[in-house]
Amino acid sequence: MIRSLLDNLGSAVLALLLAVMVWVLAITEGNPVQAKPFPSEGVSIQVLGVPEGLTLFEPVIQRASIILRAPSTTWDTLTSNDVVVFVDLNGLQPGIHDVPVQVRCARCPQERASIVRIDPARITVRLEELMERTLSVQVDVLDRPPQGYTLESTPSAEPALVRVSGPRSQVEQVARVEAPLLLENAKTEVVRPVAVFGRDAKGRPVEKVEIAPSLVTVRAAVGELRGYKEVSVKANYRGSPAAGYYMSNISVTPSTLTVFGMSVLSDKAPGILETEPVEITGATATIERRVAVLLPEGVTVLGGDPNVLVRIEISAQQGGGSLVIEPTVRGVDAGLVATVTPKSVQVILSGPLPVLQDLKPADVPLVVDMGGRGPGTYKIVPTVVAPPMLKVESLVPDAVEVVLTLAPTVTPGPTPRRR
Question: Are strands 54-56 and 318-325 parallel, antiparallel or unpaired?
Fold first, then answer.
């Protein structure tokens, strides 16, 4: 009995193993295991455990490529947030180190996933002593004030001191912290935020340092040189435009000039200078003339050119008017006759007065299009073909009545007999 039981137990165990193998094979075929990159774009390598008082000479910017092995259903649930790639720098001393790249995948065991390969498997990092210095900001003015102006004092920065930190070998190279300033032809005080940069003794930028704050407020006082003065220029003109026209704008280029001479030192020195007169009598279009500025005795224009461009824009006066116009009927089919009521329409227009004053009814066609219509009565809005520069404001009435009727048939009379 015992021998028979043992013989049957062996068969049962073999049957159980075969069943398990068939089940595993069926599961594997329905949910095959795949090995492929995850995620496809790679993962940033994090740096953990930087010892106190040390810093990286340069940041780790490499991305790691991971080959992950997992059932196909797992690929639909895993995200890039499930995987952390890092290097651990705990306990390291200053210097260059070759450290292993590690992967942490919290969900991999429960999802039956495993890491096949990570590339790179190791990376090189350089640790240096973390150093910090406090340096003053020096404002570097990159351009000059405009002619006749000067910097009244040394430009300043707020705050005047900044903190420079980073690897010792880099921080020690910083000889000065500069705030580069462009005046950009400013004629008054300049106050603006400016980014600061660290430079070595030869004026070259030092890259691997952090400056806090990275922006400072720079002030630079710009004022007129003694004996110089900035004055406005006023255009002078003579005459009047033609009837129906007016001056719509007057401009001078340049609108200001810097002058110098003994006269400008006086408190009574004018702040505005006029140009020679520009003739506009009878003008109907914009006039541009280059004319001289009238200067007091002993006063000279900085740069030597006393001429400016005067532009006087001449525009037509705007107004309104109306015309009574008989509509022109078009497109009436053969065999039909059109009767229009009323016989004329008042067209109200707006635009330049000179154009309106010379306008005649023939200049404004009023068209009623009856194309494709058969006998009947129609309400039609006429089409107005207005000249350029004129705008149609309204029609009175806004529509006309058109009656299309059959043309009367002409009956031929009897043919006279010959004798």
Answer: unpaired
The residue length of the chain stands at 419
Distance from C-alpha of 294 to C-alpha of 287, rounded to nearest angstrom = 20
Q: Is the pLDDT of residue 5 over 60?
A: no
Report which secondary-structure segment, H or E, holds 75.
helix 72-75
Q: In this predicted model, what pLDDT tens digit does every residue of 370-394 receive, in sequence order?
A: 988 889 888 989 999 888 889 898 8
- Neighbouring C-beta atoms of residue 85, cutoff 10 Å: 20
For the chain, the first-to-last Cα distance in angstroms comes to 157
Q: CA 84, CA 79: separation in Å to the nearest integer? A: 11
CB 233 within 8 A of CB 278: no
Residue 261 has, within 13 A of its CA and on its CB side, a CA count of 15
Query: What count of Cα atoms within 13 Å lies in the side-chain half-sphere of residue 267?
Result: 0
Half-sphere exposure of 290 (CA within 13 A, CB side): 3
DSSP state letters, 353-392: HHHHHT--GGGS-EEEE-TT--SEEEEE-PEE-PPTT-EE
In whole angstroms, give the CA distance from residue 195 to residue 185.
20
CA separation (Å) from 126 to 56, 86, 363? 6, 16, 88
Q: What is the DSSP letter of 408?
A: P
Nearest Cα neighbor of 325 from 371, 370, 373, 359 is 359
pTM of the model: 0.50
**Residue 215, both tokens:** 């922006």
Per the listing, tokens 């498997």 go with: 121
DSSP β-bridge partners for residue 345: 325
How far is C-alpha 132 from the geometric centre of its chain's CA atoms?
Answer: 40
pLDDT tens digits for 273-314?
Answer: 899 999 999 999 999 999 999 988 878 888 888 899 999 999
Which sign, positive or negative, has the C-alpha torsion 327, 332, 337, 338? negative
- CA separation, residue 160 to residues 54, 178, 200 (Å): 28, 11, 19
